[in-house]
Amino acid sequence: MKLLTGLLFCSLVLGVSSRGWFSFLGEAYDGARDMWRAYCDMREANYIDKYFHARGNYDAAQRGPGGVWAAEVISNARENIQTLLGRGAEDTLADQAANEWGRSGKDPNHFRPAGLPEKY
């Protein structure tokens, strides 16, 4: 647990760079909200799809370095938990590819499933 806390703290410190702490933390908070919104939309739409992974990461990354950091931490934590619960490595790799696609600023609609309402 101490190792995980130390790694999390170091990644936060390294992610701040020359921007102010308050700006970074605000971006991280807003990015986490973007990730939550994508998750809620996925549940509401009843589509478990890579599109929502890419969209949540994309929206969070648009906030700035804090949003990118939050998206990466949340995505990695989610995938690590699912790996521990026995979800297949192939699906985890596909989820992480969609996560990285969105975080890099690429259009999440690349993963948009046919028939998904325009609301999402």
UniProtKB/TrEMBL annotation:
Keywords: Acute phase, HDL, Signal
GO biological process, one term: acute-phase response
Signal peptide boundaries: 1-18
Annotated segments matching region Disordered: 96-120
UniProt xrefs under Pfam families: SAA
GO cellular component term, pick one: high-density lipoprotein particle
Recorded family membership: Belongs to the SAA family.
Protein role: Major acute phase reactant. Apolipoprotein of the HDL complex.
Protein known as: Serum amyloid A protein
Species: Theropithecus gelada (Gelada baboon)
